[in-house]
Design brief:
single chain, 2 helices, 0% strand
């Protein structure tokens, strides 16, 4: 249930206008690329935040 709630919060409905012209005819590819990009950005943000936490800077 948590995964579904997060998905509906994080992943917006497909809207062809949000994607480049070359991806509009392939909604599966377009939305897959969008989801990958959002996941990558979230991972990068979590990494940066963890590096600023003094308790997370050392691997013990």
């Amino acid at each position: 249930m948590l995964f579904e709630l997060l998905y509906h919060y994080w992943c917006v409905p497909y809207d062809p206008e949000r994607f480049p012209e070359y991806l509009r005819k392939d909604p599966v590819h377009a939305y897959g690329q969008y989801a990958f990009e959002e996941g990558f950005k979230l991972g990068a943000q979590l990494t940066c935040l963890s590096l600023h936490d003094p308790h997370m800077q050392t691997l013990e």
